[in-house]
Design goal:
There is one protein chain. With about 160 residues, the protein is α/β, with parallel strands linked by helices. The protein has one domain. The chain is about 40% helix and about 15% strand. It contains five helices and five strands; from the N terminus they run αβαββααββα. A five-stranded mixed sheet has the order 2-1-3-4-5. About 20% of the residues are buried.
Length: about 160
C-alpha cells in the first residue's frame, strides 16, 4: 500500500501541473485587440507568419484574445464584441469573472507593456508577458512583436514537420 502512495502523488502532481498548459495548448484561433502604437498589427503579422495561431478578424471565432489591457475596460470590450446569449440576458446570469464593482484605485487605465492571452470561454488569463515599450518606430514594433511571439510560442506544442 505504501508503494502506491508515491505513484498516486506523482499522478496528482502531473494532473495539477499540466492543467494550465493543456488549456493554453487548446487555443487555435486568436483575436488581437487594438494596442498602443499599432503593436496589434505587428503581432498579428508575426503570429500569422510563424503559424503560431490562426489570427481571426471575427471575435466570435476566437478561442482567445490577445490584449494589452485587462480589467473593466477589457470586460466592457468583451461584452461589446461577444454579447451574452439571449437566454443569459433573460435570466440575468452574470459571468463569475466579470469582476462587478472594483475600487477605482485598482482600475487599469493605460497599457504599460504587458500583453495578455485571455481564453474566451473562461475569461482567464492563460499567459502574460512584459515587454518594455520605447521604440514605437515600425522596426521597433517589429522587434517587440518578435520577442513576444517567441515567448508565446512556448505555449504551443511543437508540431511534427509535414511530410
Amino acid at each position: 500500500m505504501l508503494a502506491l502512495t508515491p505513484i498516486f502523488a506523482a499522478a496528482v502532481a502531473l494532473v495539477c501541473f499540466s492543467a494550465v498548459p493543456a488549456r493554453a495548448a487548446d487555443i487555435r484561433t486568436v483575436y488581437v485587440m487594438p494596442m498602443p502604437s499599432g503593436l496589434d498589427q505587428h503581432l498579428a503579422d508575426r503570429i500569422t507568419r510563424g503559424h503560431l495561431y490562426q489570427v481571426v478578424t471575427d471575435p466570435r471565432a476566437a478561442d482567445a484574445f490577445l490584449t494589452s489591457r485587462i480589467g473593466p475596460v477589457f470586460e466592457q470590450s468583451m461584452a461589446e464584441l461577444l454579447p451574452p446569449a439571449a437566454e443569459e440576458k433573460e435570466t440575468g446570469k452574470k459571468d463569475a469573472g466579470s469582476g462587478g464593482n472594483m475600487h477605482s484605485a485598482l482600475k487599469s487605465t493605460t497599457s504599460r507593456g504587458t500583453i495578455f492571452l485571455v481564453e474566451v470561454k473562461s475569461r482567464q488569463v492563460v499567459w502574460s508577458d512584459f515587454e518594455k515599450t520605447g521604440d514605437s518606430s515600425p522596426q521597433g514594433l517589429n522587434r517587440e512583436a518578435d520577442r513576444i511571439v517567441k515567448k508565446l510560442s512556448s505555449l504551443t506544442p511543437k508540431s511534427a514537420p509535414a511530410k
